[in-house]
Design a protein that fits this description.
The protein is built from 11 helices and 4 strands. By secondary structure, it is α+β, with helices and mostly antiparallel strands. It has a 4-stranded mixed sheet. The chain is globular.
Length: about 290
C-alpha cells in the first residue's frame, strides 16, 4: 500500500496538463479535378490555423498542447464550393517523464460534407451551424475532452457536452449527413452519446486509471500492469450492462490495442488476452500474437 501511495503522489505532483491543440493538417486531393484543386490551394493552412489558434477551452491553460492530426481525403467536388471528404483524426498525449506518447484517438470518419470558397477565412462562434467549422469544433472538443479524461477523472465532460450540442445542430441542418444517428461502425453522435451516458461512467473512470498505469509503467511496472488489466476486467464485467460493440469501446481499442498488447506482453497470466479477444474481437490477431510470443 505504501508503494502505491508513493506512486500516486509522484504521478499527481509532476504532471502539467496539456490543453489546446497543436494540430497538423494533411490533405489529399487526388480524387479532385485540377480546377477543384486550385480552389483549395490554401485549404490545409486555413484549417490548421483555425484548429491551432481558436480557443476551445473556457479557462486559460499552460503546459503542452495536445498533439493531433487531421488527415483529410477529398472524395468529390460539386459546383464551385461543395465538397465531400473522409477524415482520419489522430491524437496522442505525452507519457509522464518519457519521450514517448500514448495514442488517444484514431478515428476514421467517412462522411464529411461542407462548403469552402477560395480565400475563405474561418471564424468560431458563429450564430448558425457551419458544416466546416462545426466539424472542426466537434473534433477539437472531442480531442480535448478525451485528453482531459486521461489526466483527471471524468474531467472531459464539459467538452463532450459541447460536442453533443454541435451534433444536434448538424443533424438539424441541411448538411445532416454524418451528424445523424446511424448504425455504421463509427458515428459522431454515437461516441458522444456513449461518453455522456452514465452507463459508461465506470469505463471512463477506468480509462483514467489506465493512464496512471501507462505513466508509471517504467518505474512501477507491476502496479502499472495491474491498472491496465483492471480496465480490461472492468469492461469484461460490464458486458451485461453495456453494448461491448459501442462506438466508444471500438474507438478506444482502435487507438489502444497496440499499446495494451505491448504493455501486457510480460504479464504472467496470458488469459488476459483471451478476455481482450472477447471484448475487442476486431483486434484478435494482435492478442493471438501476444499469446504466442
Amino acid at each position: 500500500m505504501k508503494k502505491l501511495t508513493v506512486f500516486l503522489i509522484v504521478i499527481f505532483s509532476g504532471i502539467s496538463l496539456a490543453q489546446e491543440l497543436n494540430c497538423k493538417v494533411l490533405v489529399n486531393y487526388e480524387n479532385l479535378s485540377v480546377s477543384s484543386r486550385e480552389k483549395l490551394v490554401n485549404f490545409a493552412s486555413v484549417v490548421e490555423d483555425y484548429m491551432n489558434k481558436t480557443k476551445f477551452s473556457p479557462e486559460e491553460w499552460e503546459g503542452e498542447k495536445i498533439e493531433c492530426t487531421l488527415n483529410i481525403f477529398f472524395l468529390s467536388a460539386s459546383g464551385e464550393v461543395n465538397y465531400s471528404a473522409q477524415v482520419v483524426v489522430v491524437s496522442q498525449r505525452p507519457i509522464y517523464k518519457s519521450i514517448n506518447n500514448s495514442p488517444i484517438l484514431t478515428i476514421n470518419d467517412p462522411q464529411w460534407s461542407f462548403t469552402f470558397q477560395e480565400g475563405q477565412a474561418l471564424y468560431s462562434g458563429q450564430s448558425t451551424f457551419d458544416p466546416l467549422t462545426g466539424f472542426l469544433d466537434y473534433y477539437a472538443n472531442l480531442i480535448i475532452g478525451m485528453d482531459w479524461d486521461t489526466w483527471e477523472k471524468l474531467s472531459g465532460t464539459q467538452y463532450f457536452s459541447k460536442a453533443f450540442d454541435i451534433v444536434n445542430l448538424g443533424a438539424a441542418s441541411q448538411f445532416s449527413a454524418g451528424w445523424e444517428k446511424n448504425s455504421n461502425t463509427y458515428s459522431r453522435r454515437g461516441i458522444v452519446e456513449d461518453l455522456l451516458n452514465d452507463k459508461f461512467r465506470q469505463f471512463r473512470e477506468a480509462i483514467y486509471e489506465y493512464h496512471l498505469g501507462v505513466d508509471a509503467f517504467d518505474v512501477y511496472r507491476d502496479i502499472a500492469m495491474q491498472k491496465i488489466v483492471s480496465l480490461v476486467t472492468t469492461l469484461d464485467a460490464m458486458k451485461s450492462k453495456i453494448d461491448i460493440n459501442s462506438v466508444l469501446v471500438r474507438v478506444f481499442f482502435d487507438a489502444k490495442s497496440g499499446e495494451i498488447t505491448d504493455k501486457l506482453k510480460l504479464y504472467p497470466d496470458k488469459n488476459i488476452f483471451k478476455t481482450l479477444k472477447k471484448i475487442d474481437p476486431s483486434h484478435a490477431s494482435k492478442y493471438d500474437e501476444a499469446v504466442g510470443s
